[in-house]
Amino acid sequence: MQTLEHIISEHPFFVGLNASDLHLLAGCAKNVVFPPAGYILKEGEEANQFFLLRQGRVALEIFSPNRKPAVIETLGPGEIMGWSWLLHPYHWKFHARAIEQVRAIALDGKCLRKKCEENHDLGYELLKRFAKIIEHRLEATRLQLLDVYAAH
Amino acid sequence: MQLIDPASVDVPMLPVPFTVRSLVRETYDTFTFSLEPLNRSNSQTFQPGQFSMLWAFGIGEIPVSISGNSADSSSLTYTVRSVGQVSKALVHLKPQESVGVRGPFGTAWPVKEACGKDVVLVAGGIGLAPLRSVIYHVLSNRDHYGRLIIIYGTRTPRDLLFRKELAQWAKQPRTNVLTTVDSSGLSWRGHVGVVTNLFRYAQLNPSNSLAMICGPEVMMRFAARELETRGLPSPAIYLSMERNMKCAIGFCGHCQWGPHFICKDGPVFPYNRIRALTEHHEL
Amino acid sequence: MKAVGIPVAQELNSVITIAELGRLLQILTERGYELIGPTMRDGAIVYDQIETLDDLPAGWTDEQEPGRYRLHRRTDDALFGYAVSGQSWKKYLHPANIRLWSANRQNTAFHILNNEPVRRKRYAFIGVRSCDLSAIAVLDRVLLEDRQQDHIYAARRDEVFVVAVQCIHSVSTCFCASMGTGPQAKGGFDLALAEILEPGEHRFLIQVGSEAGREILLLLASRNATEEDERLAHAALTHAAVIQTRRIDTTDVRDVLLANFDHSHWDDVADRCLTCANCTLVCPTCFCTTVEDTIDISGNHAERWRRQDSCFALEFSYIHGGNVRSTAKSRYRQWMTHKLASWFDQFGSSGCVGCGRCITWCPVGIDITQELQAIRGKAENANP
Questions:
Q1: Quick check: C6 pLDDT over 80?
Q2: Count of the separate structural domains present in chain C
Q3: Chain B: nearest CA to A116, how far in angstroms?
Q4: CA C101: distance to chain centroid?
Q5: Are B98 and C109 in contact, with CB atoms under 8 Å apart?
Q6: Residue at B283 is within a domain
Q7: Do B191 and A150 touch (CB under 8 A)?
Q8: B145 to chain C nearest CA, in Å?
Q9: Span C174-199, average pLDDT
Q10: d(CA C274, CA C23)
């Protein structure tokens, strides 16, 4: 059975981090399991973790009063979920529901934030990686926004 | 006035009368219909990727990709979305009614070049229709091809085309079907997000794949770039382009895109030949 | 008979009088040709049916500038003392409005009716200039020599008898000399005339360009051309060439335009261009068309018509609920880049023959030679 540190070090998101940083991160990490249809996080709640999805898929949902609730993205194994722990006011912006059973590694956001404040080099490395993910999601979202399949 | 014997007509601007053999409703606005020629000697063969000009009597003509099986020469099948006057008239056709057909026109999907390789099909919205003839071809000649990977994105779950067939295709040997929608309700258990998000699940073998992309132009552009980023060389990526067409034989000038007439130099192009054009605006 | 060029050097030229020129028209008429030539109407010289030399605008000349066209009286009686005007021979070879076919519907079936869409025409074009001969050759390449043949064009082009005329006069918008398309007509005609305006001896040097032309010439009273005849004809042609002030440097035009797709100058043109489409209407090589489907009130009789179209029309590039080229900038760029650059990729030559019509007939005086110069970024015109 692989250690958490080993799993984290192999994940593409963490590639390039030095051994001591990885050890640090592993210290903030734990294995989590979510049952199917269960909510992993909810909009408005305090954002204290980010997740490395290992198995199963997650649906990100948005609710608005005059529309039916919508799934605006699904995330799957290998993907990172959650960056609201990084930035003030540290609240989730969406609901995230496990479509099927989800296994993930949860990293303690509060703990990480503290470590990043103490160690700016680590902070910079993590921010660079998150910026890449956010850029990718933004690009994808913009494409969705164009609604390219709509009839005209 | 003299009636022209349809069998003797060789003039490309004259539509040949075909009648509707069957009509299937795919979604709330999209229909698939099969046509057979009024005169059996007008049977047409086509290659996957080609299109016909379909004429609704007195209303007008539109280019429609052939979505059927190229091995079946007894009929021509089209999948049409009702978006304008002509397409609306076509989707309201009843069995035995007549449609004018000109063609087939245009360049074909590179089914020969794909032999021995993994075939990666990326479809957006109604773009799955022109790729369906490739799927039929690959499945009928299964040993000539490596894996068949069908990556399909559309607007919402109720816009999904060929649902039953998608399920059947997924069961075929060495075949992977991945679908996604731009947004859904809560009961959808599949992927939600842009079609390029599915590439990570396809386990692509970039050095021995050939990709064919069809859908809205912006989706094709992003998909092609993403495939390149993942290691597919641009000559192994093909797009099916679209522009306004009036004659479909290279004379009216409407379908020009840079130096290309899409009706005769396309609609299928290898990405390396057109990449620069896809990145210019208002071309 | 489609004109086959015979190298000029191999033929000894002849000379005919005006009266014999009149007889030439008569002979062509007797042989069943419909004569089309320059004639004056509404303050312009147009191409229309003519019967005799009296229909030609003898003693008239033209003055052309960007956005300006005027006729003036000459001091002599030259029959061809003017340049080209707003119409070109595509008026007859590539008709602007033609029915392709009609169809009747009975219950759910329809039948296409034979409407003789390719009725053959026997035109004799009188007074075709070198730039227009090049334009006809350009249209031949597009409409006859690609993968498909345009049957309507072919039916008219096949039978046309071409009487070319060597220019003795250029206007300020002419730039055929720099395009290599004139002012001397070197081939593509059945007969070519060079007007010699010697007082008291108004005559025409006549060159044979094909077997059909030779056959007709033999029916006319002519004498051999003398050195003096050749000298005078040549002098007039040289004059027409040297007075041209506009030019296009044809070196690398294609590469320059295709490399400057995002040049800021396109915005400059866009500010002036009205997208009125005049340039495409007067251009002798613009060939775009559209189809129009009509239906009668009973709903049982339909027709399909082919009409001339222009890439400047907003809906020309309509697809999926919008127009690809929605801005004036994109449409002007499309026209100019197609004409001077993409045409090479498509047909192996420039689409422009230097006739200058687009400059004269642009209501805001946009000058294709200047626009190219601006994109190239260096001064080229001798006397703009």
A1: no
A2: 2
A3: 30
A4: 28
A5: yes
A6: no
A7: no
A8: 33
A9: 96
A10: 46
Tell me the residue range of the domain where A120 lies: 4-146
Same domain, C23 and C138: yes
Residue where a domain terminates, one of B105, B131, B155:
B105
Structure confidence at residue B99 as a pLDDT band (50, 70, 90): very high
Name the neighbours of B, counting chains with at least 3 Cβ pairs within 8 A.
A, C
The verdict on residue B113 lying in a domain is no
Residue whose entry in the numeric block shows the structure tokens 């340049």: C83
Is there a single domain that holds both residue B223 and residue B148? Answer: yes
Peptide bond into B37 cis (omega under 30): no
The domain containing residue C335 runs over which residues? 253-376
Task: Determine the distance from the C-alpha atom of residue B202 to the mean position of all C-alpha atoms in its chain, rounded to a whole number.
Answer: 21
Cα A63 vs. chain centroid, distance in angstroms? 20
Does any CB of chain C come closer than 8 Å to the CB of residue B58?
yes
Kindly report, residue by residue over A83-130, the tens digit of the pLDDT: 888 888 888 988 999 999 999 999 999 888 888 899 999 999 999 999
Stated length of chain B: 283
Q: Between chains, do B280 and C289 touch, taking CB under 8 Å as contact? A: no
Query: Is there a cis peptide before residue C183, judged by omega within 30 degrees of 0?
Result: yes
Last residue of one domain, picked from the residues B76, B105, B134:
B105
Asked if C295 and C354 touch (Cβ cutoff 8 Å), the reply is no
C157 domain-assigned: yes
Question: Which of A39, A79, A149 is the mutation pick for testing B, counting most B CBs within 10 A?
Answer: A149
**Confidence (pTM):** 0.91
For residues B150 and B273, membership in a common domain is answered with yes
CATH number at residue B195: 3.40.50.80
Q: How would you classify the pairing of strands B209-214 and B237-240?
A: parallel
Residues of chain A that touch chain C, judged by Cβ-Cβ distance less than 8 Å: 151-152
Residue A130 in any domain: the answer is yes
Spatial neighbors of C1 by CB under 8 A, at least 6 apart, are C159, C161, C190, C210, C211, C212
Please compute Rg for chain B using Cα positions. Answer: 19
Does residue B218 sit at the C interface (CB-CB below 8 Å)? Answer: no
C320 CA: distance to closest CA in chain A (Å): 6
Sequence letter at residue B204: L
Domain contains C381? no
A147: which 2 tokens? 């609604």
Q: What SS3 state is found at C169?
A: coil
Taking a C-beta distance cutoff of 8 angstroms, is the pair C204, C77 a contact?
no
Pair type for strands B175-181 and B148-154: parallel
Residue C17, helix vs strand vs coil: strand
Name the strand (E) or helix (H) holding C358.
helix C357-360
Contacts of C316 (CB under 8 A, 6+ apart): B244, B254, C288, C309, C310, C323, C325, C331
| ipTM (interface predicted TM) | 0.92
Distance, CA of B1 to chain centre: 39
**Are C167 and C269 members of one domain?**
no
Backbone angles phi, psi at A71, to 5 degrees: -95, 125
Same domain, yes or no, for B141 and B273? yes
Cα distances from C179 to residues C55, C237, C299, in angstroms, run 31, 16, 52
d(CA A11, CA A51): 12
Q: State how beta strands B148-154 and B98-105 pair.
A: unpaired
Residue range(s) defining the domain that contains residue B152: 118-278
Structural domains in chain A (count): 1
DSSP assignment of chain A, as one string?
Answer: ---HHHHHHHSGGGTT--HHHHHHHHHTEEEEEE-TT-EEE-TTSB--EEEEEEES-EEEEEEETTEEEEEEEEE-TT-EE--TTTSTT-B-SSEEEESS-EEEEEEEHHHHHHHHHH-HHHHHHHHHHHHHHHHHHHHHHHHHHHTTTS--
**Among the listed ranges B256-260, C127-131, C320-324, which one has the minimum average pLDDT value?**
C320-324
For residues B74 and B128, membership in a common domain is answered with: no
Q: Are residues C225 and C283 in the same domain?
A: no
Helix ranges (H only) for C144-282 are 151-157, 176-179, 211-217, 227-242, 253-259, 265-272, 278-282
Domains of chain B: total: 2
